[in-house]
Amino acid sequence: MAELVWTIAGSDSGGGAGIQADVKAMHSFGVQTCTAVTALTAQNSLAVEEINAVSSEVLESQLLALEADLKATVIKIGMLANSTQIQLVAEHLAQYKSRWERPPVVVFDPVAIASSGDALTEEDTLDALKKYLLPQVDVITPNTQETQVLTGVYLIGPDAVRDAARKLRELGVKSVIIKGGHWDYPNGYCIDYCWSEGEEYWLGNEAIQTPHSHGTGCSFASSVAACLAKGYPIKDAFILAKAYINQGLKVAQRFGEGRGPLAHAGFPEQISDFPQVIEAGSWLGDELEFAVSEEFNFAAGFAPVGEELGLYAVVDSVDWVEKCLAEGVKTVQLRIKQADETTLEEDIQCAITLGEKYQGRVFINDHWELAIRHGAYGVHLGQEDLDSANLVAIQQAGLRLGVSTHGFYEMLRAHNYRPSYLAFGAIYPTTTKDMTGQIQGLEKLRHFVPLMRETYPTVAIGGIDLTRAPQVAATGVGSVAVVRAITEASDHRQAIIDLKRATGES
């Protein structure tokens, strides 16, 4: 069953924003949308002519009907026309959160001003928003102007953005996404910011020059809501929503005499639509004056592997490295998590020698210094290792680099480094590592592969066995990595034959 998302917002008679934009954006991400209309606006591409707020009785009747039969995973809130509506919606949200077996996640786009410049509320609703609604909000998505109105912080730089996000959290909001479409800092770029659970995320891309941007705020928040309902973590919802907007702005067109609406062009699958993950040391990071650590060793562009990697065995001993290579597995990773320091270097050296003997690709997990010292074919690193490993040394030694990713944000972060291949996981739950909250599944893998396969060899890993391998291979991923499917098989030779056949390698 598709996930249910509600949108509580106003109707835009022009069709570009409000409820109309919300439904289009949510459907692009494959969720079912229910609506509760707060106001009927009379507007076109030139102006908002009139706001006709629905009565409290009419709004409440919609909420009661939905609650009785169609409970939401996520509730997105847009335009609320007056303080009475704000208080009513806040009261219902509080009840949902206390009564529902699965409390909904609440995403709030604080719509106050239309892109035409017209006010969208009947009165000053600021105090009611702060007092009643914000304590019920899980994710808020203001633009720079709305952020300044809500917090009093003028966004003159990254520290001010962080300060504004902190003030919003003090008002009760759990996570903050500040959209930078109106920020223009640095000049000519669009920078977006997200804070959630102690982590911050910055995205940036060159500003897309088009006058046809009506409905971007509604569509962005609706995309975030839909992605959260689909089980994406907020950092993935953030980057997917941004890519969705970039994609829509590129093909937006005029329909009336004024500004045209954002185009709704489906799930984003072109890497050119995705923003850059901004890190310290990058050009945008420098422009934003991000602090760079003394041990900064950023490098991008690693030696290629030349082709897809085929059946990929991840093993924890030299003995298994040789068993796999001897049976024709061309790519093997030595992953020793509980290393015996007295034998670790000898094990790595032996594994590298075996790779040369069998003309296979042997990657060394984590221990990049020893891999360099003994001339390994390649190194495989996790996301956290990118902050500590000497990537310059790995690159200069000519080693290939593989990087693990768990979702869209990490995938785009890894893209900054231009590694030799990308690994996507965990596709299924696995007993070898606690991957709580990071299970991707086949649906997400089907989105990862077309996004990256033109640029990198791709690998799927995590919980894959003989029964699952054909479905994984059918996504188009270039390589299937297995951990236990070979080493725990009763006959590892037959297991390798079967896995190769199941993944189309032989």
TrEMBL record:
UniProt enzyme class: transferase
Keywords in alphabetical order: ATP-binding, Kinase, Magnesium, Metal-binding, Multifunctional enzyme, Nucleotide-binding, Thiamine biosynthesis, Transferase
Domain Thiamine phosphate synthase/TenI residues, every copy: 316-486
Source organism, top-level taxon: Bacteria
GO terms for biological process, alphabetical: thiamine biosynthetic process; thiamine diphosphate biosynthetic process
Binding-site list for 2-[(2R,5Z)-2-carboxy-4-methylthiazol-5(2H)-ylidene]ethyl phosphate: 430-432, 463
Positions with a binding annotation for 4-amino-2-methyl-5-(diphosphooxymethyl)pyrimidine: 333-337, 365, 404, 433
InterPro entries: Aldolase_TIM, HMP/HMP-P_kinase_dom, PM/HMP-P_kinase-1, Ribokinase-like, ThiamineP_synth_sf, ThiamineP_synth_TenI, TMP_synthase
CDD domains, sorted: HMPP_kinase, TMP_TenI
Obligatory cofactor(s): Mg(2+)
GO cellular component, one term: cytosol
Coiled-coil segments on the chain, per record: none
Cofactor-binding details, from the entry: Binds 1 Mg(2+) ion per subunit.
Residues of the signal peptide: none
Domain Pyridoxamine kinase/Phosphomethylpyrimidine kinase: 12-262
UniProt-listed Enzyme Commission number(s): 2.5.1.3
Catalysed reaction, written as an equation: 4-methyl-5-(2-phosphooxyethyl)-thiazole + 4-amino-2-methyl-5-(diphosphooxymethyl)pyrimidine + H(+) = thiamine phosphate + diphosphate; 2-(2-carboxy-4-methylthiazol-5-yl)ethyl phosphate + 4-amino-2-methyl-5-(diphosphooxymethyl)pyrimidine + 2 H(+) = thiamine phosphate + CO2 + diphosphate; 2-[(2R,5Z)-2-carboxy-4-methylthiazol-5(2H)-ylidene]ethyl phosphate + 4-amino-2-methyl-5-(diphosphooxymethyl)pyrimidine + 2 H(+) = thiamine phosphate + CO2 + diphosphate
Membership in a protein family: Belongs to the thiamine-phosphate synthase family.
Annotated HAMAP family: TMP_synthase
Function recorded in the entry: Condenses 4-methyl-5-(beta-hydroxyethyl)thiazole monophosphate (THZ-P) and 2-methyl-4-amino-5-hydroxymethyl pyrimidine pyrophosphate (HMP-PP) to form thiamine monophosphate (TMP).
Identification of the protein by name: Thiamine-phosphate synthase
Gene behind the chain: thiE
